[in-house]
Amino acid sequence: MKQLLLVLVILVVVSSSNVLAQQIDFLPDDTIKTLLQRQVGKTVELRMRSGEKIAGKLERVGDTMVHLTQLTGAEFYEAAVAMDGINAVVMRAKSN
């Protein structure tokens, strides 16, 4: 019985990690803005030109700013990030 329960727990953990995995839908003519607009509602990590990293749930994408909530490591905080300071968008991808 304990072994069956352990197997079920492992299956739930493995299947839920696959559900949480995301994929960046990259198009050849994308900009940081157009890429981010398709990621609204998902968790992203932004790599800034300064070398800093900021991650959280992407709430809104404006013309010059990005709004993140539920910041990683500071879940009760939000951030407004200047679009021109973003160097890369990082998302957890599905592993093969």
Topology:
Elements: H1 2-20, H2 32-37, E1 43-48, E2 53-61, E3 65-69, E4 79-82, E5 86-90
Antiparallel strand pairs: 1-2, 1-5, 2-3, 3-4
Description:
With 96 residues, the protein is of the alpha+beta class. The protein has a single domain (22-90), classed as Roll (SH3 type barrels), CATH 2.30.30. Helix content is 26%, strand content 30%. It is built from two helices and five strands, in the order H-H-E-E-E-E-E. The protein has a five-stranded antiparallel sheet. A hairpin with a 4-residue loop joins strand 1 and strand 2 (53-61). The two termini are 31 Å apart. Residues 4-9 and 13-20 have low confidence and may be disordered.
Summarize the structure.
The chain has one domain (22-90): SH3 type barrels (Roll). It is 26% helix and 30% strand. It has helices spanning 2-20, 32-37; strands at 43-48, 53-61, 65-69, 79-82, 86-90.
